[in-house]
From TrEMBL:
Name this polypeptide is given: VOC domain-containing protein
Top-level division of the source organism's lineage: Bacteria
Presence of the UniProt keyword Acetylation in the record: no
Organism: Sinorhizobium fredii (strain HH103)
InterPro entries: Glyas_Bleomycin-R_OHBP_Dase, Glyoxalase-like_dom, VOC_core
One matching Pfam family: Glyoxalase_2
Keywords assigned by UniProt, alphabetized: Plasmid
Length: 122
């Protein structure tokens, strides 16, 4: 068995694709309309479509899919430049801070409320 990638549900696939391309500067490898795969193994799926596929029914509630219980972790060689580029475009959880293990990171929310963490490589 091999883990391939996380596949978060998103409420608006076009909005989320723009966010990950423009804010995090990820590169799209595949775009099938309701499924987008980026470089480095990250992917998104249109929430209403995937909800019907997985559960066989439409989602009852509206709104974002993020539940503040999952972190998508990325690294950037220049965390200070990444913070300057990203901070004004997102809802920050916190600025750059050193973690107990010595790594500097910052965290924010994507458009669906999923937690994004950007850390410096260790």
């Amino acid at each position: 068995m091999k883990f391939v990638n996380p596949l978060p549900f998103v409420a608006d696939i076009d909005r989320s694709k723009r966010f990950y391309c423009e804010v995090l500067q990820l590169r799209v490898l595949e775009d099938h309309g309701d499924f987008v795969r980026f470089s480095d193994g990250f992917a998104l799926h249109d929430g209403p479509s995937l909800h019907r596929t997985v559960f066989g029914e439409s989602r009852l509630e509206d709104g974002p899919y993020g539940r503040r219980n999952l972190v998508f972790y990325f690294e950037d060689e220049d965390i200070d430049a990444a913070f300057e580029r990203i901070a004004g475009r997102v809802e920050l959880i916190h600025g750059i801070s050193e973690q107990s293990w010595g790594q500097r990171v910052f965290r924010f929310f994507d458009p669906d409320g999923h937690i994004i963490e950007i850390g410096e490589p260790q």
